[in-house]
Amino acid sequence: MKLEVVVLPVSDVDRAKEFYGRLGWRLDQTPPGVIQFTPPGSQCSVHFGPDLTSAAPGSAKEYLIVSDLEAARNALVAVGVEVSDPHHLGPEGPVSGLDPERRSYYSRASFSDPDGNTWLLQEITTRLPGRVEAAATSFSSARDLASALQRAAAAHGEHEKRIGQADPNWPDWYAEYMVKEQTGADLPT
Fold first, then answer.
1. What phi and psi values does residue 188 have, to the nearest 5 degrees?
2. For the chain, how far is it from start to end, CA to CA, in angstroms?
3. Residue 10 has what pLDDT?
4. Which residues contact 21 (CB under 8 A, 6 or more apart)?
């Protein structure tokens, strides 16, 4: 089973369609009466339309996973979306600013659609163990892939320092590192 669609409760379908289109989400072909958008890199879409749900408009709260919170926030602001300032989870609750260590799952920001449906942006670069199967690893954009390659390159540089020489097998090392980072497995050293 795969999660395919989440239904958003909206009061004005045309206004919602304009908003989600402005985000750069793909407008998918659907049956009459249904509007479907898919965020870049996502396999799950959102639906809205008249009579799709009895939930109150603005009552949804959804998560969007990003590999670089600052870049995602800047992209949204660039298209006129009001996004909260970044914050991270501290021992006593939310703290202003990005997580100083840029740990996965800690840095967040949020925005709302015109009806008040809330979207929480959460920065994740390394998954908790068991969250992603190794065969299902993928990157949602060239920027996400480049960011993963940069992290692998930095880690590989430390690996070469430890072994005291250049590692000619770096492509395999990078691949293993990037898959393990996404799946939450122990990273190679």
1. -65, 155
2. 35
3. 96
4. 27, 37
